Amino acid sequence: MSDVHPYSSDVAFTPAVKAIQTRKGSRETYARQEERGGWRTEIDDNLAAFLAETSSFYLATATADGQPYIQHRGGPRGFVKILDKNTIAFADYAGNRQYITQGNLSENPRAYIFVMDYAHRRRVKIWGEARMIDDDPALIDALMPKGYRARPEQVLVFKIAAWDTNCPQHIPQKFDAADVAAALAARDARIAELEAELAALKGRPVPAG
Fold this sequence. Notes:
It is a single chain. By secondary structure, this protein is α+β, with helices and mostly antiparallel strands. It has 3 domains: 1-38, no CATH class; 40-165, Pnp Oxidase, Chain A; 174-202. Helix content is 33%, strand content 28%. The protein is built from 6 helices and 7 strands, in the order αααββββαββαβα. It has helices at residues 15-24, 27-35, 45-52, 100-107, 137-143, 177-202, and strands spanning 56-62, 68-74, 81-84, 87-93, 110-117, 122-133, 152-165. Strands 2-1-5-6-7-4-3 form a 7-stranded antiparallel β-sheet, with helices on both faces. The longest helix has 26 residues, at 177-202. It starts with 14 loop residues before the first helix and ends in a 7-residue tail after the last helix. 19% of the residues are buried.
């Protein structure tokens, strides 16, 4: 990373943020967190499992002068790959050819990923630096989900500086349409099975009393 912070959470807790935390009474709580090492910086089993189920997230970048930009990224579950304990990557598909994210990263590598799991009311925030690789066909092919109907154009490699989770407060619970369809199909199959069992029972002769 281009910046070195005393605590990993300093990637977000700037002096200005800490001053407001002090004024509003939360600085002591976060200072204790800093004493314990701040936010996590390596991918653990929990984050790995979370990312393995991810099919959608938001990627934030900024221009050299700080103009922010957020873009959605999606794919089949498991399209985000873990390269090592600090690095994730994914195939970036051809889109509207604006290339705002790639342009921003070419002059400012700082980036941020926000992943929301509405079904389980969980969210993960990931700070780091990212770069686009568009001249490595082997890497693009290795990261492209097999059978997915999209044209890979490049790869985004994201080096994690820090990550943290949020409480579920105010997250509305929503479910993926495919998951709902699968649950309804399983329910309907079970109903059909029970109806068949009931019909079979009704067709049996009544035992002599």
